[in-house]
Amino acid sequence: AGRVSEIRESLRSGRIDLGLATLTDADLPGIDSHPLLVMPMALLVPADSKLTEAGQILGRDRIDLPLLTLPGHEPACRMFQEELQKRGIDWFPALELAGLDLISRYVASGFGIGLSLRVPGAQMPADVRALPLPGFPEVRFGALTSGRISPLTRHFLAEAQTVAARMSELA
Q1: How many CB atoms lie within 10 A of CB 101?
Q2: DSSP assignment letter at 146
Q3: How are beta strands 41-46 and 113-117 bridged, if at all?
């Protein structure tokens, strides 16, 4: 797992046979993508918050709530900010955290509103609530390969697709 640019170079150099990453719409010459999961974005609020839909936040003239996100180079953050720009909304991260689990913990502790992903089959912590973001892009996650796929890599891909399908059924 890693950034797409790192995975692409490792695949091309033959250091790895398969990489796992967020898939982008950018065409990667010589790289084949194998989608596994589609994850909608959501805003996390504390479970006891009076906010019931994302529009109550995004519809404000000025959003003064702290936004908690993954690091800015992460595709979900870039996609979220691009969609906000299209809508003429300025709302920038107040705090960048290393993982979705940290975002939910900080939201539950009252540090702000979190940008998260609805991972199929994953349970939402009891102390936070997810507000869907209708019309926002979904984040796709999958495997990347290059060239001929070995039997072992083909087997791994088949297993990963089975696990992803089971996760999606639970959603």
Answers
A1: 12
A2: -
A3: antiparallel
| Residue 37 pLDDT exceeds 80 | yes
Helix, strand counts (H, E) of the chain = 5, 8
Q: Are 69 and 96 in contact (CB under 8 A)?
A: yes
Got the DSSP string for 85-105? HHTT----EEEE-S-HHHHHH
Are the CB atoms for 41 and 76 separated by under 8 Å? Answer: yes
Residue 42 backbone dihedrals phi, psi, to 5 degrees: -150, 155
Rounded Cα–Cα distance for residues 14 and 7 (Å): 10
Q: What is the pLDDT of residues 111-152, one digit of tens each?
A: 999 999 998 888 889 999 999 999 999 999 999 998 889 999
Q: What pLDDT does 1 receive?
A: 60
pTM above threshold 0.85: yes
Question: Residue 75 has which token pair?
Answer: 């595709």
Contact 40, 120 (CB under 8 A): no
Who contacts 147 (Cβ-Cβ below 8 Å, separation ≥6)? 30
Give the integer Cα–Cα distance in Å for 73 and 110: 25
CA distance 58 to 68: 15
